[in-house]
Amino acid sequence: MTENTIYMVVNAPKIHQRIIGQLMMRLGILYYLEKAIPFEPLPETMIDECQTSPTPDILLFDNENKLNRVIIEISGNTGARRDFEKIKNLMIDYNVAEGFVYNYDTKQWRKYLLDQGEDLLRPSFCEAIGYDLNALI
């Protein structure tokens, strides 16, 4: 008798998922209930639906204009620097204006603006929606 076993490998620690959940819940309230932000928060959604493409932890999507506006990655110390380089490349490749990486080990944000580079002054403030993401976790 042959046993078919499927193994799923997911590298998503509880703290990683908890922060995504908090951000999704609060961004969802702002979008769906309060209508306070213009872009829909989507978890683990392909940037390019026409082909297999990267899936940031959270994507803020402009449904009216069919544009990706903000990408957010959640990471720990070991992946934060790599994830910051990843979001910069994704932003360039897919013309996304604003990107963030939150390091849950240091509780620090890094922000990249496509037209300006890294924003060291307000690293957790999302220009696209007018909210400080740090206040949402």
SSE pattern, N- to C-terminal: HEEEHEEEEE
**What class, by secondary structure content?**
alpha+beta
| Shape label | globular
Report the β-strand fraction as a percent range. Answer: 25-35%
Q: What is the CA-CA span between the terminal residues? A: 50 Å
Lateral strand order in the biggest sheet: 1-2-3-4-5-6
Please state the average pLDDT score: 90
How many helices in DSSP terms?
2
Largest sheet: 6 strands, mixed
- List segments where confidence is low: pLDDT < 50 over at least 5 consecutive residues: none
The total beta strand count reads: 8
Radius of gyration computed on alpha carbons: 16 Å
Name the helicity range: 25-40%
Description:
With 137 residues, the protein is α+β, with helices and mostly antiparallel strands. Helices cover 28% and strands 26% of the residues. It is built from 2 helices and 8 strands. The protein has a 6-stranded mixed beta sheet. Strand 7 and strand 8 (131-132) form a beta hairpin.
